[in-house]
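User: Here's a chain of 243 residues. Predict its fold as tokens.
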Amino acid sequence: MEPLVLDSKTRLLVLTGAGVSAESGVPTFRGMDGLWENHPVEAVASPQGFEANPSLVWRFYSQRRAGAADVKPNPGHDALVRWEEHLGDRFLLATQNVDGLHTKAGSRRVVDMHGNLFRTKCADCPREPFADTTVHPSGTVPRCDGCGGRLRPDIVWFGEMLDPGDLARIGEFITRKDGTRLVFLAAGTSGAVWPAAGIVDEVRSARGDTWLVNYESAANTERFHHFVQGLSGQVLPTLAKLV
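Assistant: Prediction complete.
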């Protein structure tokens, strides 16, 4: 297998999905069969669900916070930290995962495309999201210090748009004109969730090199130049050649 060469003339965009976190023991939505305590996941992960029963939503996310708090990053996370230390500002990590494991591992240039489980924001005012590890196991709905409105997890729910600033940051990295060659690597993704699934096409349009590391073939595998089958925690630590 040819190595992924990361030298002084390379910039690297990485996308990680649920498979990377699953290797650390974080349950995926698919692993939950789309249900939580017999509620459809949409009932606890959508604006409509929050309006209908904010207490239920907070019980769900409190359970997820409690479960994720003790989860440790795996060797795949650690490899990405080493790559970032090597490349500096020529590295950007976009993740669909909300568990904060990349940050816990030491990654700093991270775009949380789908939000972060350990951040909270106000549903009723434009207050900036803030770090929050509080759990509300009884489903207490916390209130905003600023407006008194309802607080909610800073998660991009079903039916919500991704933060335009996050998408712009990814787009600017792809189109950056700094004389470097662009490489894109996706790991642990289904290739079926948009707009993340379309990043490979944006990179190809910018004449970048594209890699997929996945335990199984993704919905968009044929769009990648290189497909390395395997667990990201096993493949990533030996995939790159740091020059």
